[in-house]
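During the reporting period the student researcher (J.K.) took over the structure-prediction task from the postdoctoral fellow and processed the backlog of single-chain submissions. One of the processed entries is reproduced below for the supervisory committee.
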Amino acid sequence: MIPSDTQRRATRGVLTLYFMLVFIATFSVLTAFWHFAEAEGAGLKLFVLAATLAYAGLYTAVPVAITALSSRVARRFNGGRPASAKTLYASAYAGAAIVMLALYSDYRLYELYEFHFNGFVWNLLTTPGGIAALGATDSTMLTIAFQVAAILAATALPLWVITRFRPAGLSAPRRIALVTAGVFLIMLAGVEGVFAYSAFKGKEEYLRVSEVIPVRLQTSMTTIFKRLGLEHTAMARLRIASGTVDYPGKHLEARPLASYPNVIMLVAESFRWDLLDPEITPNLWRFSNSALRFENHYSGGNRTRMGLFSMFYGLYSPYWYSFEGQRVAPALMNFVRERNYQLALHTSQSFSYPELRNTLFTGIPEEVMQELQDGPAWQRDIRNVSDIIGKLDRRDRNRPFFGFMFFESTHAPYTFPEEDVVRADYERDLNYIKMDLGNNVKRIHARYVNAAHHIDREVGRLLDYLRASGMLDNTIVLFTGDHGEEFMEKGHWGHGHHKSFAEEQLRVPLVLWLPGAKPEAVKHRTSHLQISPTLLERLGVTQDPLTYSSARTLFAEEPYFVAGDYNYMTVFDERSKVTFPFNGSDFFRYVVTDDNDQPVSREEKKEILNRNEARIAAVARESQRFVR
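J.K. obtained the following structure tokens:
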């Protein structure tokens, strides 16, 4: 049946009113991001308002475009007849639902981590093991499901109500629709012009507040501004770690050893330095008193990828992308394989997410890699440790042994059995959506402490085996965290918060048992980047570590350190941190904080940048040394 003119006008009236409501809803959701902007002054507030209006219009264009497309497709396949009202309503609803769900998801993401949907999130969603790596509890997933259902219902309800009244008089004439679209396009062009000019001139305050808008266009007008004779005063981007890998990771110069020591590397997820404590981790604490305890040790990143990458390669985090894409193994793993080590690689998470199969353990036979992903993390940790002990018991005594274990219990939601509770006042159910960080962070931290105590029990069980079997006399044992974990000390929970490299997210324990070495509490600052050179030197490598890494051994005192995440890196010492983007995903600027991770004044920032100018230049050169 072909719709009559009256029916088509009624349909247009329904859609007109519905799209108006979608715009209002979209605008309202975007205003929820405003408090993150911290816009001060009338100019910044007006810019945020204009950007919110412009992007609300842009997002509303999604269901409008989907509806128009469905109308065109229907005409084509229906012999020129107009689409039915149901088809157009369904298309409008589908488009609106996509927008509202996307904004809801983005808000939740930004609320926790201060970044929008980006390549990292897409990687998490599409890589096997990515979703599981979040550690979301059943109650979290149930809450999300309920909220998604509520959003879908709330998006459908207005359309259902409007269709009952069929307000044909609300149908917008084509001229008014075009004028409305033109107004929003002009507003969007103005907003993007301000952004482009701010990026060109380095006006950080406008760039900073624009970050709160999801899925920004980030328009660049550099060529136009230069042709207009404007001076380019924004900071130049640094070209870092992009290109074909040229890494001397094989056949290192070394002296032969009469007997190669076994090596066991124990790494715990999100395990920060203050967990190394006589009460929380008694086994590790006792062990550290007979070993080397590095008391001011830092990860090379605030996420697992970068933390482990810096540990095994001794390189800065931006190299991850080229090395992962080109499947380049670290010198450490190449060396132990060349020396015919038996391998036992275990994780209670996944070797695919993060992509350790493509980096740290690329080329390693699958039969020596065990990943456990079913059941609570604390149970997986127990099983993995038991299996490692079994492999040690059955090992070939004529070949050295290399073991790796990644503990997952201290990743949120921080799991443990009741017998390992040392903080009784812990949050019983960690629901990521409902958790009240303002009031319950101590109870959440108590879960974390209990999980660490559980890991300590498993580490103690492995150490007991090494002592009882006599293996400890010829085994290098290392324990550390891939990175730290913050509990609102600097305004965040967890780790990996965009450009935040707070002490709590970077500082980790390092306990290193070297057979024959004198116990010592090492006071000077050290980094994950120094671990690989230290182990290789102990295994007989005589080649200068700076030829295959970016750091010297743990016993060398470095003037500064470098850490990174997926988009940013930081150069820091005991006085300050200088943080900047390295991959072009964000406008370039320096974020400078003091020794307590607090922002500094404009004058202090200038002084710190001047003091670190040579260091930053050296880091940029070093970040390009192993690629061509």
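The committee noted the following: The chain has 19 helices and 15 strands.
J.K. will present the remaining backlog at the next meeting.
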